Structures are given as structure tokens and as C-alpha cells.
Amino acid sequence: MTAKPAAAAARATVYGYPRQGPNRELKKAIEGYWKGRVTADALRATAAELRRGTWQQLAEAGVHDVPTGDFSYYDHVLDTSVMVGAVPGRHRAAVDADALDGYFAMARGTQDVAPLEMTKWFDTNYHYLVPELGPDTVFTADSAKQVAECAEALALGYTPRPVLVGPITYLLLAKPAPGVAADFEPLTLLDRLLPVYAEVLADLRAAGAEWVQLDEPALVQDRTPAELNAAARAYRELGGLADRPKLLVASYFGRLGEALTVLAKAPVDGLALDFTESGAGNLDDLAAAGGLPGKRLVAGVVNGRNIWINDYEKSLATLGTLLGLADRVDVSASCSLLHVPLDADAERDIDPQIARWLAFARQKTEEIVVLARGLAGGTDTIAAELAANRADLASRAGAALTRDPAVRARTAAVTDADGRRSQPYTERSAAQRAHLGLPLLPTTTIGSFPQTTELRTARADLRAGRIDEAGYEERIKDEIREVLSFQEKAGLDVLVHGEPERNDMVQYFAEQLTGYLATQHGWVQSYGTRYVRPPVLAGDISRPEPMTVRWTTYAQSLTARPVKGMLTGPVTMLAWSFVRDDQPLGDTARQVALALRDEVNDLEASGTSVIQVDEPALRETLPLRAAEHAAYLEWATESFRLATSGVRPDTQIHTHMCYAEFGDIVQAIDDLDADVISLEAARSHMQVARELAAHGYPREAGPGVYDIHSPRIPSTEEAAALLRKGLEAIPASRLWVNPDCGLKTRGWPETRASLENLVAAAREIRAELPTEAA
């Protein structure tokens, strides 16, 4: 059957696009600027060229209005703070002296000034800089960046659609500034903020913007009546402005729910909604609300967060239904394409048949254009694309890669007992203390040590054939010896081998597990200039052979102190991969957990007494609606216990989490039944320690005292002050001393100094403790 053409031609568009460039040119330029090798003008020229390239690619593909303003040197929420003048007092002098250096000081800090706190952008692995606000905050408009990029696009002949973080989401993401009462609600500043947005909108209108996109993803979360009323007030005021461009309010990552009615009634000109699996309820809600008469609907039917090809027939059916619910229906991805790699055609090492299952940002743009063409002109106009799409979907569904009978049989045989330690924590703790003989406030690191130029060169040399496997392994051994020697001299109590052989905490394991595919160029921004290559979880998972035992055992042979085995947990292996979408996530997590269980047991058998299984993504992957939390946390915590519960009582299981809001999952952290947990805490001034104490968390914990995402070196006094705060919440008998996260991205000089100060702080505090503290 031929679909009926739309009354008005549907257009293709995107919410946003990856920033880094085909070869991560932006990362290289920014890091060159930080090191003094790239001038500010050269950095700006690189950024402008990347923007031009993005707009050109989008326009040539058939996208009508291109997003502007979504480009960022570091983070779009930080850009919003600059736009509204919400610069913390401690950074004001730096910003006034040099806007670019001040911007990076807010993001990274300086030796003398701490950066803004960083946390996860909703349920993604992207990190944003948290706005710091208080009752004395004065907002002032600075639309220079937005106006300049809008003007750039216009000058090049493109139709720009500036993208702003909406005022409700901005305030809901903010936190009370240091020194402000913890119960201060930034949303109370809305009436002070709206005139600033009005001024920015007027500036953009004057610059030639016909439409402006205001992103409000916070509205897909559970919102109180007061928050919904604030949203209604905000868009009633902004929509009622006489001098403004047309307003497109965009939501993504899920179902708007009650907020849909609020926005549908608001005097705005269009809504952008997520109609992929996570937001399928938006279709029913939109129909129940009577549609969007008189408004533009941007339909996010192409998944902007995963890399599998779109099902054209399914998307066209959704789009066909939407035609009767709005005056104009345009086609887009479900969210910004920031969350996927740039171009699947760059992957030369993936089987061509499998490669046809993949769609990165460039391919998703092409899918959006095809769907818009089919919606506007009928399915006959895209008959060839539909046929190829059907064939590719069938190829994936029938591929042997996706199903392993042995893995499925083992998973089906799992019992409740497999996910429980043989003894309760109190008994295990006594056995571990006797076995390990650690002091009060034991010191350790999270796992990785600096990935030096020499290490990256060695990996490149191995790939290029300039050195053989034996030569490469000698370099790795040399690095492990150096890392162990430093830790012993510094006085750390539980050591790590430094992970010199590992490229990434997920990719390293994915490359050794069946069912995973690795990319060569699939870079995705995690924060700032930190990019990761999420592997593709395409089929059933198993572990053919040990993955970490050899290097961990080698490291342990060099020291009498315990060396931690280091693994990445099942939830994080899913969250930081592009996961298969053809079975429930819990089923996939169980497969990964069983593969890791084999590794944990082999590490213990080799003599490893401390094993850390990192789960930094546990909070990140929490569904955005509370009604879905329990089901997720059940399979998430079960998969961790399944991976770790096969060891003896005297083997100490650690886990690690970082850069997320932990307060609402403390019970789940408890349910993991790990013996020790380390968490990010330096930027939040030990907030998580207080949250653990309020819950009555009974196990050992190491809230971080060294912020590794900043180049500044914390002094002994600073680390000791944080430890004292930690001791207010956690008794010395259960408190560990460690950095916030791994040290992979730091340099050796700052790492040495920071860890030496950390150990000195622990010794200082130990000396202050009464003898009965033990």
C-alpha cells in the first residue's frame, strides 16, 4: 500500500550533532590550547571549520533547518551558564580577565580555584557542568555565542535553528552554590531568569533566526505540580513575547506525561517529541490531548542514542498516525545525535553484512531524510530504500551471532543462590581484616594510572607491526613495575597494576568477549575533551578465556602488598556500549555477569585477595521515571551479585561509582553487597558520605578526596579536610582513602604529587584518631 502524501511537505531536521569532527579535531585543538601549542585564534578557526562542515553535511543530506549553538568547547550546560551570566564568584576574575580561559577554569578548575561539579546528563554517559545558584544570583544576558553562530550559518546560506537549554531544565539541573542552604530550590529563580531568556530570544530574532529550539528534557522526569506550573508560566511568558522567533520546545529521552498537556496548551509554535521505544507513550498521550492543532510537531522516530538501523515501516506507521495530530509533521532523531559516533562508513574492519545493521550520526541523518521523503510523497518514492531496509533487518534477526544456545542454557539455569555470598558481610569483614591486615583508613587508588604517550605509542607500534607482541609485552611489564614501585614508595596500602595494557574500561573487555564488536572510529563525547569508543553489543556474551589474570598475577608477584584485580561490572558493560535492542536488558546483563563471574573466580584462584568490579553506570542507567526504578534495580543489582558472589568470604569485593547523583539509589548500593565501595565525592564536598550515613550503610566506603577530572593538585590539608568531613559520616573502621576515579587521563607529575598528599593526609588523620577507633 502506498502511504498517503502529507498535506504539507514533511521536512527533515536534527536536534543537534556530534561536535568533535571526523578525526577529533576539536579535542586536539582544545588540548593543544591548554598546553600552549595552539593559539586562541587557531582554536576558534578550527571550531568554525567544524561547524561549517557539519552544516554542509546536513544540508547536502537534505536537512532543512540546521541546529546552531549546540556546538561547544566543553559542555552546552556550561555554555548556558555563561549565556545567562551565572558565573560563580570564585571564577569571576578569571572570566573577566579572559573569557575563554575563564570558561575552561569553570570546567576544569585551576590550582587555586575548584571547578564546577560535574555529573551525568540524565541517563546518558555524557557529563555536564552543574550550575551553582543561590538567592543572590543575578542573571545577565550574554547572547554573543548564540548570535554569532546563527549569523555564521546564515552567511553560509543555511537556515539556522539556534538551540538553547530551556529555562526549566536549566534550573532543575542546578544546585545550591557553596555556602547556600541545601534546601534552596533554584527553580525559585525562574522569574529572575525569564527576562534574560527573553533578551536572548530577541537578539536571535534580530540576528535572523526564524525558529529557536528550547530543550526541556527535564520534563520527561517525574515533576511536581509546582514544577509543572512553573513550566506553564515560563512558556506562557516566553510564548507571549511580541519580539521573538518561533519557539520549538524539545523533549527527549522518554515520555512527557503530564508535561505534554502543559506544553500543548502553551503559546509556543511547535513541540519536538521522542517516539522511539523509550517514548512510545507520547503517541497515545498526544492523541488523548487532542493533538497539536496550529503547531509544528517534530517527530523523533529515529533512535538518537543507539546505533542500529531504523525500521522504516514501523517509523512510517508512527508518522502516518501523527499526520492527523498536528498542522505540520517533520521528521527527526529522538534526541541530539551527540550521543552516537559520526560515521559508520569509516568502520573498515567490521564485516560488511554486519556494518549494514549500523547507523551512526551521518547514517541517521540519511534515515531521517528518507522517512521525510516517504512521509511527504508516499512509500512509492522510497521503494528501493524500503526493500533494502527490510533485507538488512532480516539479516540481523537471522544472524548466528545473535544467539548462542550454550550461553542461553547457562543463563536459564541461574538460581537465587548463585547471586548470594556464602556468609553475611559482618562475618566476611572479620575474615578479610584478618587476611589482609590493613591499617585504619587504608589507602588505595581506583585502578588506572596515567596512559602516557609512550604507552599509546607502544599500542600503535604493535598495531602497525613496528614491534612484535614480545616487545609490546616488555613495555607493559616495565610500566607495571614502575607503577608498583611508585605506589610502594608513596605508601599506598592496596595497590593496582595501573592498567597499562587497557585502552578503555569497557572496550578492553568487550574485545575479549564473544558477542561484542569493536569500532575503530566510533568516538562519542563523554565530557570535555574526553571521548570514548563504546563497543557494539550485538549477540550473546561469553568469555572464551581469562582476560585479566595474567597481568594481575604478574603485578602481585612484584609486591607483598595486596594488588586489586580490576574488572568492569555488567551494568556498566551495557550502559557504555551500544546494547542490542532485540531482548530485555536484564537478559543481556545476566549473560555479561556470568562471563565476569568466571573471571572473578579465576582471579581468586590465582591468589588475588581484593577484586574490584566497577559499576559507575548503575545510577546513570536508572530510568527517568520512578515507576520504572524497581524493575531496573532488581536486575541491575542481581547481575552484580551474580558476577561477584562465587568467591570465598576472605576475598574482598570492591566496587566503584562516580559522577552521578547517588542519594536516590543508596538502597541499591546496599543491595550490591560489595564489601567496599569507592565513590566520587571531592567536588560535592562529601555529600555522598552523608547520604550513606543517613541510609545506615553498613559496609566500608571510600568517598574520594582527590578530584581527578581537574589538573589541580589537592594539598595535604585539603585532602585531610575532606577526610574529616568523611569521618563525620563514616567511622574510621569503615572509611577508605582514595581518589574520585581512575587516573588514566592525568599526567604523572600531578598524579605523583596528589597521591603523595593523599597518603600524607591519611597518616595525619590516623595520628589524630583515638586508639579505640579501631
Automatic annotation (TrEMBL):
Its cofactor is Zn(2+). Signal peptide: none annotated. The active site is at H709. L-methionine binds at I446, G447, S448, E499, D614. Pathway: Amino-acid biosynthesis; L-methionine biosynthesis via de novo pathway; L-methionine from L-homocysteine (MetE route): step 1/1. Gene3D superfamilies: 3.20.20.210. GO terms for molecular function: 5-methyltetrahydropteroyltriglutamate-homocysteine S-methyltransferase activity. 5-methyltetrahydropteroyltri-L-glutamate binds at R24, E25, L26, K27, K120, W576, E620. Zn(2+) binds at H656, C658, E680, C741. L-homocysteine binds at I446, G447, S448, E499, D614. InterPro entries: Cbl-indep_Met_Synth_N, Cobalamin-indep_Met_synthase, Met_Synth_C/arc, UROD/MetE-like_sf. NCBIfam families: met_syn_B12ind, PRK05222.1. Catalyzes the transfer of a methyl group from 5-methyltetrahydrofolate to homocysteine resulting in methionine formation. This is 5-methyltetrahydropteroyltriglutamate--homocysteine methyltransferase.
